[in-house]
Amino acid sequence: MKKISPELLRDSIQCAMTLFCIWVGYRFYLFYQWMIGNSDVAVTKPGAVEGFLPISSLLSLKQLFTKGIFDEVHPAGLTIFIAVLVMSLIMRKGFCGYLCPVGFIHNLLNKIGRKIGKTVTVKGKIEFGMLIPKYIALAFFVITVFKMGGRELQAFIRSPYNFTAEAKMMLFFTDMSITAALVVGTILALGIFIPYFWCRFLCPYGALLGILAKVSPIAIKREEDKCISCGKCNKACPGGIEVDRKQTINSPECVGCTQCINACPVDGCLNVTDRLSRVKLPWYVIAAGSLVILLVYYAAAKFTNHWDSPYPLEMLRKYYMMM
Ligand code: SF4
Ligand code: SF4
Ligand code: SF4
């Protein structure tokens, strides 16, 4: 029987999560069609679709902190957002490494790039310059949300725009304009040649998670005395990290994917380690921990009625018809 390697585990979880997201998207499409009167088949809204609204969730999080109000427009979105933030604080960027479907698409694009031998390594000052845009985008969102007063926040959260945000997101993909298709196509094409192009250089969500992951107690450690300086870990790393130059990898680019461990030919040279106690952990702990955190938050939200929106469907239908 084939031994489960870090690569196989990661590919399997990413694939399963992506299939799940496609199913969620399809269910939401059916729900939308029913809501706008194009179908007679009643479908319940899959709450997980709200996980694709991190900006709305960031506003809801501020409302939760400042007013103590848990968002009732996209409660599942806020639950997923909090789970992902907590995940990053504990399990590094486990969300990026295993759960995000865009990360899986980039994983596949990277495999294509390697197969055809056309990947480009972005290093040094060019890498530094290319990393800046995602932090600028993140700063823009955070400052905008920070500046919003209580009334503005409430007005946005209860606006028809916010109520219909996931439908707008779906229509962006189903009725894509030529300009949008060109932009998305270019980003995907670049992902073949520049590994994880969107994730590494443009995604503000990933930038936020990377900053939070800096305090995570879990990190990859390299045993210098065992290392043979073969550089295989560097080539395997989706974060473009020079693993063979560090003792502990605490970069905001590390997604905890353990592909460096997968590539390393020396047993026990790279390990997932608890930085506080220096105890070596099983290599699959980030994958397992990330999944457990997500499921615990989902179960807690379901159990405490913080998953499904209590707003009447007729209200949502009215907003959908106005779009
Ligand atoms: S960087 Fe962004 S798109 Fe990439 S895996 Fe992370 S959250 Fe998803
Ligand atoms: S350092 Fe290792 S665990 Fe971190 S992103 Fe690179 S390959 Fe993945
Ligand atoms: S793959 Fe392992 S042995 Fe090779 S450079 Fe990286 S840490 Fe050292």
From TrEMBL:
Keywords: Cell membrane, Iron, Iron-sulfur, Membrane, Metal-binding, Transmembrane, Transmembrane helix
Name of the protein in its database record: 4Fe-4S ferredoxin iron-sulfur binding domain protein
Source species: Maridesulfovibrio salexigens (strain ATCC 14822 / DSM 2638 / NCIMB 8403 / VKM B-1763) (Desulfovibrio salexigens)
Domain 4Fe-4S ferredoxin-type: 218-244, 245-275
Listed SUPFAM superfamilies: 4Fe-4S ferredoxins
Subcellular location: Cell membrane
Tagged with keyword Iron-sulfur: yes
Membrane-spanning segments: 12-32, 126-146, 178-199, 281-300
Gene Ontology molecular function terms on file: iron-sulfur cluster binding; metal ion binding
Gene3D superfamilies: 3.30.70.20
UniProt xrefs under PANTHER family: ELECTRON TRANSPORT PROTEIN, ELECTRON TRANSPORT PROTEIN YCCM-RELATED
Gene Ontology annotations for the cellular component aspect, listed alphabetically: plasma membrane
Top-rank taxon, per record: Bacteria
